[in-house]
Design a protein that fits this description.
twelve-stranded mixed beta sheet; 12 strands; disordered N terminus; single chain; mainly beta
């Protein structure tokens, strides 16, 4: 469960793209002002050829007590991505996905699923949110000399393990700087960007798992 929330939560921290809410009747409507903010984030992100960022993941219980903190990095280039977080690495070259569990000394290999009925990493990086969330604009907040626009998203599908996401968007740069995921179990996951750079040269092999770099790791082929 944590791995799924990690991927979904961190992805929204980076990008929300092509938001055109089309929701079932009776579900309410999204805030057009919130859509303007998310559209601006999407437009800005599409100008980046590549992206690198470092982030912190903080896990809290329902009372707000910190249960753990992890740090990580992410690189993106088109549909390719590589995520590294304490104890785990995920590689995707646009076709295959390798999920490395360092403690277990195993890597799972699967195929990127682009079928319309599934939630794939590729969709998460493109238009996953266009039909699946209602979104609202909350009051702006100011912190350390910067102004952040706050957007709250609620999933239309009530079977999802979380009931709310709260994004903080840097009003000046139009980049999502933090995401807070509220899980139904009471746990909360806070993803915060520490550093962010764009358009650096990244070789394609950075998004492919290399067995030579991880000797002794068992490959589990799920294709």
């Amino acid at each position: 469960m944590l791995n799924k929330i990690l991927l979904a939560g961190f992805t929204v921290l980076i990008l929300i793209s092509n938001i055109h809410a089309q929701v079932p009747k009776g579900m309410g409507k999204s805030d057009p002002e919130a859509k303007k903010v998310l559209d601006a984030v999407s437009t800005k992100f599409k100008t980046f050829k590549t992206m690198k960022a470092s982030f912190t993941l903080k896990i809290e219980n329902a009372s707000g007590k910190v249960q753990g903190t992890k740090s990580g990095t992410v690189m993106m280039k088109g549909v390719k991505y590589q995520v590294s977080i304490t104890g785990q690495e995920i590689f995707c070259d646009g076709i295959s996905i390798w999920t490395l569990d360092k403690a277990a000394q195993e890597v799972q290999l699967s195929t990127l699923d682009n079928s319309s009925g599934s939630i794939t990493p590729q969709k998460l990086f493109t238009n996953f949110y266009d039909k699946d969330f209602l979104f609202y604009l909350n009051p702006e907040i100011k912190r350390e000399g910067k102004t952040y626009q706050v957007v709250e998203l609620t999933p239309i599908d009530k079977t999802k393990p979380f009931f709310k996401l709260v994004l903080e968007v840097d009003k000046s740069s139009k980049v999502i700087m933090s995401t807070r995921v509220f899980e139904k179990s009471g746990n909360r996951y806070l993803y915060a960007i520490n550093s962010f750079s764009t358009n650096a040269s990244i070789a394609d092999d950075a998004f492919v798992y290399s067995a030579k770099k991880y000797p002794g790791v068992e490959l589990i082929d799920l294709r």
